[in-house]
Amino acid sequence: MIAGPILTAAEMVAAEEAAMADGVSVGELMERAGKAVADIAWRMAGRSDTLILCGPGNNGGDGYVVARLLAERGCDVRVAALTDPKTDVAKEARERWKGPVEKIADAKGAPLVVDALFGTGLMRPLDGSLAKLLADHVNGARHSVAVDLPSGIETDSGALFSPVPEFTATAALGALKPAHLLQPSARYLGRVMPGEIGIPAESKLHALGRPKLAAPGPDDHKYSRGYVLVAGGAMAGAASLTADAAIRGGAGYVALAGPDHPEGPLALVYRLAADPRTLGDLLDDDRVDVAAIGPGLGLNGKAEARLDRVLDSGRRLVLDADALTLVAGRRADSLADLAHVPILTPHHGEFVRLFGDGEGSKVDRARAAAEAANAVIVYKGNDTVIAAPDGRAAIAPPAPAWLATAGTGDVLTGIAAARFAQNDDPFEAACEAVWLHGEAGRRAGAFLIADDLLDALPGALASCLQASPLLRHCEEP
């Protein structure tokens, strides 16, 4: 999956208009787009018999360019059009294609199918017969490529206007769009591949990429690497997972403050904190950088008192699970006056309890929640969205489905606390944590359990380290 800026349909139009203002013609942009798709199709399928389905707009115009360029490379190319081109630049592209154009209803299948019917900006469903025809061709092909987006997808939300078949690859022209990463659309795209067309793309929304992390330096010690305090509660195992993830996620010192001594790694320091006053004594330690609370906390009066003590501590905070449920009963905007912007990590049910269903895309809802709560929101799922109160947002690459098992969210909370202890920017810390969590899931593999993520975390972190003299000293000859 590629990283970088993500543009909405309107932002993509504005970027193209800015390029044209600088002297790039619409025709040149279409040539670049067609070449990008043709290159992807060629790398994927080589000299294959090809069927290109063209719509009436500029997406169809891109298809005619693809047809011409693949034919020049020796492919047997057929074009099937929905109607005649409607835009001037698409008409020009059609005229430069010297081969025949079939009626789409009469087209026979091919090993390689290119969907150039409708791309970015579509605002309505496909006709039922057209949606079926597209599905039949894509499902019957060995390879299939969508031009920018499969036809039938809403660009900004990833919603499906009509049924969409599963493609082998999708060419993201110019920049990623929200639908390339958001569900339900992302599952149908196959491999999303960049289609460079030479226009600048800037946005406050980005696709999450591998973070760059620094190794400890010669002057670092356990407290300079971050002190995380995990406040446990009724379920000792959940809080232990969080604490374990914090120490394996890079924090130099982690204390687990709970009523009992749960099982866990020897690197953890366990503290008895049966009541909020004892917890308060631990939180008063000026060396504590971040407090994490929620996993295994419980929902009774004692849990509320422990949460209150953490909220009043003045520490940087990561809130998850039961802490979010308790906060939801008090209104999410009760967090707005905390000493530091906290990180909240709700799954969908917790998000709705906190903020309601909201309107717009998942990105829109996460941004609105971040502003309302003055918090960084990690809106979890296969398409996790991270949003900050200042409007910055990121979408994570699709997470391994095997992460849908108990305890993995507790691990994410611990990683987020560790990163927040080392990175003063809660948005950047949350982005680092989400990427590392997903990478640990990929490394752990099929049928993982939460504990497996802990073993995979060091490798995930090591893959992000920037080169340093200290690391070279540790390398084998």
Provide an overview of this structure:
The chain is built from 15 helices and 18 strands. With 477 residues, it is α/β, with parallel strands linked by helices. It folds into 2 domains: 4-207, YjeF N-terminal domain (Rossmann fold, 3-Layer(aba) Sandwich), CATH 3.40.50; 227-469, Ribokinase (UDP-N-acetylmuramoyl-L-alanine:D-glutamate ligase, 3-Layer(aba) Sandwich). The strands form 2 sheets. The chain has an 11-stranded mixed sheet, sandwiched between helices. The two termini are 34 Å apart. Residues 469-477 have low confidence and may be disordered.
Compute the average pLDDT: 92
SS strand fraction: 15-25%
List the uncertain runs.
469-477
* Estimated structural class: alpha/beta
Please give the alpha-carbon distance between the first and last residues.
Answer: 34 Å
- Compute the gyration radius: what is it? 26 Å
Oligomer: single chain
